[in-house]
Amino acid sequence: MNKKIIAAAALLLVGALFFAAPESQGQKRSVQITITNITTSSGTIVLSAHDSEESFKKKKPVQTARVPATVPSATIELSLEPGDYAVCVFHDTNGDGDLNAGFMGIPKEPFGFSNYDGKGPPGNFKKHKVAIPAGTEALALEIPLVKF
Predict the structure, then answer these.
(1) Number of Cβ within a 10 Å radius of residue 42
(2) How distant is the alpha carbon of residue 37 from its chain centre?
(3) Counting C-beta atoms within 10 Å of the first and last residue's C-beta, which end of the chain has fewer, N or C?
């Protein structure tokens, strides 16, 4: 009798997992991110999307993307679940894979963040987050590159 109960419970668990999976996969939303103020076609545009303060601070993005730099703008499309995200971008002009910075930590390469106007130092996740609401239509976001 115990074997029947265990088998029934296992069947219910497998069924619940099987039927729940497609529902969660359908919630992602297309987000088209246009990076502007690109001044040279050398190098690569590098993008990272962060879904929490911890992800942002530890530089552990939930999604990354790289595209060739094109003057004057480049577009990257992500598929994100509804929620808050901070998007970071930089133009890797020398192709070394890093955002190069000077002695004081000031970036030598163009960079940008969601909700950043280029005035003053960039902020934290809370300052740069954008809300990705549930929905089916594509969402557009523009991030201008700045250089100090």
Answers:
(1) 13
(2) 19
(3) N
Determine the Cα–Cα distance for residues 143 and 21; give it in Å rounded to an integer.
33
Average pLDDT, the chain: 86
C-alpha to C-alpha distance for 39 and 45, rounded to whole angstroms: 12
Whole-angstrom distance, CA of residue 60 vs CA of residue 76: 19
d(CA 36, CA 13): 48
d(CA 82, CA 36) in angstroms, rounded, equals 25
| pLDDT value of position 103 | 86
3-state SS, residue 61: coil
Token couple for 44: 């690569």
Q: How many CB atoms lie within 10 A of CB 55?
A: 17
Task: Record the pTM.
Answer: 0.80
Q: Alpha-carbon distance 53 to 20, whole Å?
A: 28
Q: What angle do CA 106, 77, 140 make, to 5 degrees?
A: 85
pLDDT digit string, tens, across residues 57-76:
999 999 999 999 999 999 99
Helix, coil or strand: residue 148: coil
Cβ-contact 87, 48 below 8 angstroms: yes
